[in-house]
Automatic annotation (TrEMBL):
CDD domains: NAT_SF
Stretches assigned to the N-acetyltransferase domain: 5-156
Gene Ontology molecular-function annotations: acyltransferase activity, transferring groups other than amino-acyl groups
Lineage per the UniProt record: unclassified sequences, metagenomes, ecological metagenomes
Protein name as annotated: N-acetyltransferase domain-containing protein
Gene3D superfamilies with a match to the protein in the record: 3.40.630.30
A Pfam family: Acetyltransf_1
Organism: marine sediment metagenome
């Protein structure tokens, strides 16, 4: 059965949405200080949500860096709704939003393949399927046990 979901930009309850979904994704979000930072920071960034009826099942938050570039700051889809096109649609809607504002690049930081992690291998595969390219690895940006991979996509 195909579930119908809707994507929309939101301006309220961003922290609550972020916290509920990130805490449900334990394979990806295990570092308490990182969760707290995301929950606090999303208040100031544009956010898109995915919902079925009134049930929020996913979100994507954008961090604006310059007039040319933005970053997928944090994104999460409830596990029961993975592989249903929701993440792809959230990314596409955020790109449309950025294109209207003449942004040229969208980036995302994720765990590098140099740290073996099955969940993040899926994450990298997802971003590559959307046209993101690995740009650079930062071995200590987060900490030495969590090497960061910067990926980028041209959007305009």
């Amino acid at each position: 059965m195909k579930e119908n979901f809707k994507i929309q930009k939101v301006n309220r309850n961003k922290s609550e949405i972020c916290e509920e979904i990130l805490r449900s994704l334990k394979e990806w979000f295990q570092i308490e200080s990182a969760i707290k930072n995301y929950v606090n920071d999303v208040k100031k960034y544009p956010m898109f949500i995915a919902k079925i009826n009134s049930h929020i099942i996913g979100f994507l938050s954008l961090k604006i860096h310059t007039k040319y570039s933005a970053e997928i700051y944090v994104m999460g889809i409830k596990k029961d709704f993975h592989k249903k096109g929701i993440g792809k649609k959230l990314v596409h809607e955020s790109i449309k939003y950025l294109q209207k504002k003449d942004f040229k690049y969208l980036s995302v930081k994720t765990l590098s393949a140099s740290k073996r992690n099955k969940a993040y291998a899926q994450t990298r595969k997802f971003y590559i399927s959307l046209g993101f390219c690995p740009l650079e690895e930062f071995k200590t940006l987060w900490d030495k046990n969590n090497p960061c991979l910067l990926m980028i996509k041209t959007i305009n």
